[in-house]
Amino acid sequence: MTITTAAAVIDGQSRANDKATSRAAMDPSTGEVIAEVPVADGTMVDDAVRSARSAFDSWTDTTPLERDEYLNALADKLIENQRELGDLEARNTGKPRQVAFDEVAGAADQLRFFGGAARVLEGKAAREYVRGRTSFIRRDPVGVIGQITPWNYPLVMAAWKIGPALAAGNTVVLKPSELTPLSTLRLAELAADILPPGVLNVVAGDGGTGEALSTHQDVDMVCVTGSVGTGQRVLRAAADRVKRTHLELGGKAPVIVFKDANIDRLAERLKVASFWNAGQDCTAACRILVHDSVYDDVLAALVPAVESLRVGGPFTGEPTDLGPVISALQRERVHGFIDRAVDAGAEIITGGSARSGSGYFVDPTILGNVGADSEVVRSEVFGPVITVQRFTDEDQALAMANGVDYGLSASVWTENLGRSLRMSRRLQFGAVWLNDHLTTADEMPHGGYKMSGYGKDLSTYAIEDYTVVKHIMARID
Ligand code: NAD
Questions:
Q1: Active-site annotation holds for 332
Q2: What is residue 147's predicted lDDT score, i.e. its pLDDT?
Q3: Measured distance CA(221)–CA(225) in Å, rounded
Q4: pLDDT lower than 50: segments of the chain
Q5: What DSSP designation does 192 have?
Q6: pLDDT of 28
Q7: Which residues have CB under 6 Å of ligand 1?
Q8: How many Å apart are CA 353 and CA 321, to the nearest integer?
Q9: Cα–Cα distance between 32 and 30 in angstroms, integer?
Q10: What is the full DSSP assignment across 409-421?
Q11: Phi, psi (rounded to 5 degrees) for 240
């Protein structure tokens, strides 16, 4: 049975769009259509932006405590509806149900964090930098924010975006991915009972809807989590109005393993960090760089760990570690990377073969003997595929790690404190883990170097990104 959803939630009201084309939302574990979601057109985007604009003045006049209370009430609402939201997420992404339930709890906690953070946001202390004049700093909201999210963690990405934007006193129009709009539309319906109308608007749709939002004359700032190509298109469009942008783009995380690393701990962690969410994670541990002397030992520990992962759909009743990739197209894309790597001489250490059946499953795959400049080493696969390469010294490891266009996250595995600190200083990545990989904390920033984008999600840095620093100077003589 397929459900028909709203095309948008605008001004606190669900809006249909009878004339619109619709897009099918799928269950990637079965290939079945689960919903027909209308595409919000330019008129609806216009309405959503108008609604956000008219809500702005009174929202920005709320006190930080009031915004904290609103965001906490929304977090409570997510928890009250955790099973429904989690099942919707598992159905639309194919991820394990418990993981989806945990993500709902995570999204709620992120909203609570940003509610609290609203109350400690401050400018620098006032001072007389010029005789007879007092200067002080305000951090004002930017205005109406257009936000665009991807399909890998739909609800969590929505929380990462709306939490800091609303906490800082902005109003929002958010467009979820056309592949996974269901949980975000439901979040907007739940929010309509809590937030004043117009503070949070959601429009469903594809890249065209995203473009209508990001190019809208009355949107003051555009925030994207997505691919580099989408980030570049949004950035070019933003140039016309010199709009603020906030870009969380792809990643290609290196994992640098020195000869003194704890290999058992490494293998246990990579089993999770490389294959979490079927590898569809911008921080996935996907380029394993190993000191030549321990290469065989690392594979001896890693291969059985990876082969123990259980792949399957969320509603089979069987325990699983990872689900399918998001779409048939994504499965084809991932296998395309594997096939081209093999054609170029790569060795499949485990996985790699195409699965039959209707779901979009890909076996966890390890590729060895890959060239330093090969496509699979330099481009983001965004699936359960990792490469293993050898290095002989620290400088070579660093050059290999930094030698890609991405700069989101990296990890270093060594018991040598000096080496780990030296490496973390020289690695050009927004997050560096030492003897760990993938763990995030809501209190700590997430964001990249280089083509992984700029601006921070999570932490008080995210809230600052949604403000304009204003200098006020008064004559006091
Ligand atoms: P995508 O770029 O295809 O789509 C992302 C969003 O942008 C979708 O909502 C899409 O509809 C919209 N979009 C597409 N074209 C647009 C345009 N011209 N103007 C405005 N919006 C447009 O990315 P995806 O395939 O949904 O997600 C996977 C990508 O996201 C990967 O590259 C991954 O690394 C990245 N990602 C990054 C982070 C991070 O924090 N850095 C987190 C998650 C995912």
A1: no
A2: 98
A3: 14
A4: none
A5: H
A6: 98
A7: 148-152, 175, 177-178, 206-207, 210-211, 214, 224-227, 230, 233-234, 248-251, 282, 380, 382, 408, 446, 452
A8: 19
A9: 5
A10: EEEEE-S-HHHHH
A11: -55, -40
